[in-house]
Design goal:
Elements (H helix, E strand, L loop, with lengths): L1 E3 L14 E6 L8 E8 L12 H9 L2 E7 L6 E2 L5 E14 L5 E6 L3 E4 L5 E17 L7 E2 L5 H10 L14 H5 L4
Antiparallel strand pairs: 1-2, 2-3, 3-8, 4-9, 5-10, 6-7, 6-8, 6-9
Organism: Microvirga puerhi
Protein name: Cupin domain-containing protein
């Protein structure tokens, strides 16, 4: 696994403040991705009446649809047919990305994580009433796969066919994702 905080260490694009990126290599059970996982701290302020609404509206406005409200599965899983965005509405969580030997990332209310197709993720623990809003790029249907060696070859094939999103889930066509995911 290569880690690039703030992206300046591995790319020329100057991402917004409080943006971290991580690249995870295929570990034989979780395919992961050549595309970086993007963590935007404090990207969206939860609403007062309906804290999840600003996340849902922002994601939808930028073409990330199929929104849901829930938590994060507590087992390693990934999606081979869609890129996913998670917005932390309330509470906080420690999530391991990249599989069993991946990176543990602390997330709090207002944080947004953009997960490339294939990148494993699992909730390790949570504090408070964790509420997450999730959505998928360009309205794509998603699957949920685990670290099963019998499905990884087919999953890698599907991941390679997932198109890059047209927009960043927070900032639209000019957002960091559209620059970070098209370089190098």
């Amino acid at each position: 696994m290569a880690k690039a905080k703030g992206y300046g260490e591995t790319r020329a694009y100057n991402a917004p403040l409080k943006t971290d990126t991580y690249i995870f290599q295929d570990n034989g059970l979780i395919p992961n991705s050549r595309l970086p996982l993007i963590v935007r701290q404090g990207a969206i302020t939860p609403g007062s009446d309906d804290p999840a609404k600003p996340f849902e509206e922002t994601f939808r406005r930028n073409g990330w649809t199929g929104t849901w409200r829930n938590g994060i599965f507590d087992y390693h899983h990934y999606h081979s047919t869609a890129h996913e965005v998670l917005g932390i509405v309330s509470g906080s969580a420690s999530v391991r990305f990249g599989g069993e030997s991946g990176e543990i990332i602390g997330l709090t209310a207002g944080d947004v994580v953009i997960i490339p197709a294939g990148v494993g993720h699992a909730l390790l623990n949570q504090n408070g009433d964790l509420l997450v809003v999730g959505a998928y790029a360009d309205g794509r249907e998603y699957d949920t796969l685990t670290d099963d060696p019998n499905v990884i070859a087919e999953a890698r094939r599907r991941i390679a066919q997932v198109p890059l999103p047209d927009t960043d889930p927070m900032d639209g066509a000019g957002g960091p994702l559209t620059k970070l995911w098209t370089q190098g």
